[in-house]
Amino acid sequence: MAQRQMAPFTGRKVFFFVASAFAIIIGVNFFMAYSALSTFPGLETKNSYVASQKFDKDRAAQEALGWTIDASVHDDILSLSVTDKAGAPVELADLEATFGRATSVKDDQSPAFKYEDGAYKAAVKNAPGNWNLRMVAKAADGTEFRQRVIVHIR
């Protein structure tokens, strides 16, 4: 049987091998950059300096309320419990919220909460994983209460 001879490893083959490796690396980098930018939800505030000037005052007013927030999802119903220092349910003057994934705005929803049985409840679309409830509530005296509540769904 005749032995088959291998073609020599030329400079041309080395060039194509190295060029292919760099092409793959650059392609993956472009894909990762595109993925990162296309899922970025945006800025939290337009002007961080102005927001920082009010931060301590707003935090003190919010802490003075003494509210405790708890959120959970059962059978596609998001339940938001707001209690005061004594543990009694709080009926809010106004409530706005966004329920969505922590890493993307694609699944964001604005739940239509209704107060019943000492809690705010709303129907939501969900799936297992880490979700955030970003809420802005107003007390009867007009004090604004902002909080991001992490909701784990199994």
Total number of distinct structural domains: 2
> The CATH topology of the largest domain, please?
Immunoglobulin-like
Reported for the largest beta sheet, the result is:
4 strands, antiparallel
CATH superfamily of the largest domain: Immunoglobulins
- Helical element count? 2
Shape: elongated
Structural class: alpha+beta
Helix content: 25-40%
Euclidean distance between termini CA atoms: 64 Å
**Could you name the ranges where pLDDT drops below 50 across 5 or more consecutive residues?**
none
Q: CATH class of the largest domain, anyone?
A: Mainly Beta
Q: Topology as H/E string?
A: HHEEEEEEE
Total strands: the figure is 7
Please tell me the CATH architecture of the largest domain by its name: Sandwich
Rg, Å, rounded: 27 Å
The averaged pLDDT comes out at 91
Report strand %.
25-35%
Task: Please give a quick description of this structure.
With 154 residues, this protein is α+β, with helices and mostly antiparallel strands.
